[in-house]
Amino acid sequence: MNCKTAVILAAGAGTRMKSAKPKVLHSIMGRTMVSHVISQVRKSGSEKIIVVVGHGAHQVREALSEEGVSFAVQNEQLGTGHAVLQALDMIPEEGGVFIVCGDTPLITAETLEKFSDYHEKSGALLTVLTAQYDDPSGYGRIIRDQNGGLLRIVEQKDATDSEKSVREVNAGMYCVSAQFLRESLPRLTNDNAQHEYYITDLVAMAAEKDGASAYCAEDVDEVMGVNNRVQLAAAAKIMRKRVNERLMMDGVTIIDPDSTYIDDTVVIGNDTEIGPNTIIKGNTRIGINVTIGEGCQIEDSVIEDDVDIIKSVVKESHIGSRTHVGPFAYLRPGNEIGEECKIGDFVEFKNSVFGSGSKASHLAYIGDADVGNDCNVGCGVIFANYDGKNKHRTIVGDRVFIGSNSNLVAPVTVHDDAFIAAGTTVTKEVTEGALSIGRVVDRMEEGWVDKKNLRREKLHSSHKNDR
Ligand code: UD1
Ligand code: CA
Questions:
Q1: Which residue's alpha carbon is at the smallest distance from atom 36 of ligand 1?
Q2: Residue 74, ligand 1, Cβ within 6 A
Q3: What integer pLDDT is reported at residue 466 of this predicted model?
Q4: Fold classification of 247-436 (topology level)
Q5: Which residue numbers in the chain have pLDDT < 70?
Q6: Residues with catalytic roles
Q7: Candidates 3.90.550.10, 3.40.50.720, 3.40.50.150, 3.30.499.10; correct CATH number of 3-223?
Q8: What is the pLDDT, as a whole number, of residue 310?
Q9: How far apart are CA 48 and CA 60, in angstroms?
Q10: Per-residue model confidence (pLDDT) at position 463
Q11: Residue 397 near residue 415 (C-beta atoms within 8 A)
Q12: Whose CA is nearest to atom 21 of ligand 1?
C-alpha cells in the first residue's frame, strides 16, 4: 500500500537562487520543479496532495491551479518542520504520509513506490530516504550508531567536523505514519544554528521509540536538491539525458544527445532522426521517419511522417507528411501546412493554410492566408495582410502561380488556375484562369547615363571573379 497523502514543501524563499521568483517555480525543461515533483508523487499513488505555500504563495498557487492539489499556507518560513505543521489539519487521522520537498525535481514514481513499500514492510513510524554522495556538502547527514542503527539527522550548519565527513545524506523525503506526525510535530523546537523547526528532528524522535528506518536510493541523481542555479542546470542536464535515452530506446536516432533538448511531453515516432543543436518543446508530436536536421526549434506542433525540416523554427503549426521545410524557414503560430509542400529558405508563415503540393521556395511572407493546393509562390512574394490598423485575409485557390516579387494586398481573392505576373501588386479579385499583371511598362532612353553624368567609376578590371 502506498502513502495516499503527500505533503510537498514549497514555501521557502529559495534565497540561494537570488531570484524574484519562488525557487520551486524555476523550470526544468518547460515545467516547474514543483510540478515535476507533483506528477511523480501522484503517479506513485498519492491521492491527496497538499502543497505548503508561503513565500510567493500567490504565484505558486497560480502556477499550480490546474494540478488538482490542495494548499496549506505557511505565513512565516520558520523551517521545514513548521511547514508540515501548517498542513496537519488537512492530513487524515491514519495511514502513511509522504513528505517531499518541492526542490527535488528528479525524483521518480518508481523510487517513491519502492520507498513507501519499504516503509510499510519495516513497520517503522518514520522512514527517511537517503543517498550516498561523494560530496555530501549542503545536505543533512544521516547519523547512525555503531551497529548501523539510525539515530538522527544533523544539518550541515549544526554538524561537527566528524559528522560532516559522513557521506550518507538526507534526501529530504519521508514516509511517516499520520499518527506519529500528529503527536511529534508540535514537539519540535528551534534550538539549532538556523533557529528553525526542522522536520529532520522527527527522525531522532522516531528513533527513541525504536521506530526510525532509512531507505537508500539506488540512483543518487534522483534525490538531488536544487538550491541554486548551478544545481538547476545540473538537474536539467540529468533530466534531458533521461528523456533522450528513453526516446533512443524507443527507436529515435539522436545524433548528439548532449546538444539536443527535448521536453518530456514530446512524442516522437521511430526511425525519426534528430540533428544536433535542436530544441523540441511542449505539446509536440512528431511522426515516423521524420528528419529534424540541425539547429531546429519546434514548439507545440504536429509534424507528420516523412517530413524533413532543417535549421528552422516551427511554432504551433501542423505540417503534413513528406513536406520539406528550411533551411531558415520561420513558421509562426497557427499554420496548417499540407502534404508534399516545399517551404524553402527565408520563408515566413503566420496563421495560414498552405494546400498540399504548394511551394514557396524562397524569400516570402505568407500571413493570414488560405492558399490552395499545388500553388507556386515565387521568390520575394509578400502577402500584405496589415493595413496599419487591421489584419485581413488573402484567399488563393488551387494551382495558382504567383510570380516573383508580387504583393497580394489583403483582403483579396485569387481564384483557381490564375496567374500573377512577376512584380504585380494585386489589389483586385483575380478570376479563375485569369492573368493579373500590373507593372510600370519598361521604357529605355539611349545615352541617358552620360547625359546625366552618372557613369560610375571603374574599380576592377573585370567581373570574372564575382561570386
Ligand atoms: C533540507 C533538509 C536537509 C536535506 C535537504 C535535501 C531540513 C531542515 N533540511 O535542507 O536535511 O538534506 O533538504 O534536499 O529539512 N520550505 C518550506 N518552509 C520553510 C523552509 C523550507 O516550505 O520554512 C521548503 C522549501 O521551499 C523547499 C524545502 O522545504 O522546497 C526544503 O527547504 P530548503 O531550505 O531547500 O532545505 P535544505 O537546506 O535544502
Ligand atoms: Ca533544498
A1: 80
A2: yes
A3: 55
A4: UDP N-Acetylglucosamine Acyltransferase; domain 1 (2.160.10)
A5: 1, 462-467
A6: 362
A7: 3.90.550.10
A8: 97
A9: 18
A10: 60
A11: yes
A12: 12
